[in-house]
Amino acid sequence: MIPTLEWTDQGVRFLDQTKLPLEETYVLATSYQDVATVIRDMIVRGAPAIGVSAAMGMALGIQNSPSTTVAALSKDVDEMAKVLAATRPTAVNLFWAIERIRVLYYQLVDKQPANLSEAEKIERIREEVRAEALRMYDEDIEACKTMGRFGAELLPKEGTVLTHCNAGALATCGYGTALGVIRAAVEAGHKINVLADETRPYLQGARLTAWELLHDGIQTSVLCDNMSGALMRKGRIQAVIVGSDRIAANGDVANKIGTYSVSVLAKEHGIPFYVAAPWSTVDMATKHGDDIPIEERSAYEVTHSNGKQMTPDGCGIENPAFDVTPAKYVTAIITERGVLYPPYDESMRAMEAAVKAE
Ligand code: MRU
């Protein structure tokens, strides 16, 4: 399996996604601050991968903290949560993962027997937090595989599927969300040809999606971002599937910039538009997609390509990293808990109730 991120005895090891597809090199994060840098610099990226990375960052920070009392460690934990949460604003998985570890940490603090020394309490907390981060890693892969099983039957038995950005093994702990569905369909015998939008300006489609699908022997061609409409019109695309960074309670979906345009084109041409995302991407506290914070990234990503300046000096630049696809363009949302259909405000509320009842 593609080693996107991995807990090791030395720290958290990341496949450096900024160097793909030409170099397969690794970055070792030995502190939670390193993990924050790895997330901010997009050495690791993709909503589920960012979430688990942050959880591992918290576990690493707790493991390495020089604090000798639980009270001092708690202050460190609050600081770690703050630093990791300030890395990227859109993918809700980041905040979900940090909160899951922080809540567990405080539960563990309350649970420690009074007769233990501070050092013994800290050691027990460290072990349990690390185990939780590793559990989140395993759960993420499991969720991707389950989404794959649910989603595969929605894809054509034979045909071409368009995807945007990278929602694959590289964006998760393994297997992928949207690409996991494609992988599962191929494993089930569907004859699928993938079109990957190049996904300017960061080129997640051209660099990452194409790399990982070819790695698995899945037929893939890269399209420039302005080409899919023409191919849809010619009947060359049978389905679209993408991942998501945050899904609002009404079913509006935030994903990589350009996703919205693809969804409108798909609707115009009567092509199903699917979103695959784990339940940790759902943000029921955000009622409407317009309330999802959209990351604005550096102008340099647009002005330069491979270090070469592409735009005239003094030119204005826009670089929103994500956009919101209104729920009315989404045919179905595939999660590891089942497939959601419109009206999403109802189907999502019902799934939330089921999750809470567990
Ligand atoms: O800026 P990125 O590369 O982190 O954006 C990633 C995406 O938009 C993905 O489509 C999304 O996170 C879903 S990943 C399973």
From TrEMBL:
The keyword Isomerase applies. Pathway: Amino-acid biosynthesis; L-methionine biosynthesis via salvage pathway; L-methionine from S-methyl-5-thio-alpha-D-ribose 1-phosphate: step 1/6. Its EC number is 5.3.1.23. It comes from the Bacteria. The active site is at residue 245. One of its GO terms (molecular function) is S-methyl-5-thioribose-1-phosphate isomerase activity. InterPro entries: IF-2B-related (IPR000649), IF-M1Pi (IPR005251), IF_2B-like_C (IPR042529), Initiation_fac_2B_a/b/d (IPR011559), M1Pi_N (IPR027363), NagB/RpiA_transferase-like (IPR037171). Substrate binds at residues 45-47, 88, 204, 255-256. It catalyses: 5-(methylsulfanyl)-alpha-D-ribose 1-phosphate = 5-(methylsulfanyl)-D-ribulose 1-phosphate. The keyword Ligase does not apply. Belongs to the EIF-2B alpha/beta/delta subunits family. MtnA subfamily. PANTHER family: METHYLTHIORIBOSE-1-PHOSPHATE ISOMERASE (PTHR43475). Catalyzes the interconversion of methylthioribose-1-phosphate (MTR-1-P) into methylthioribulose-1-phosphate (MTRu-1-P). This is Methylthioribose-1-phosphate isomerase.
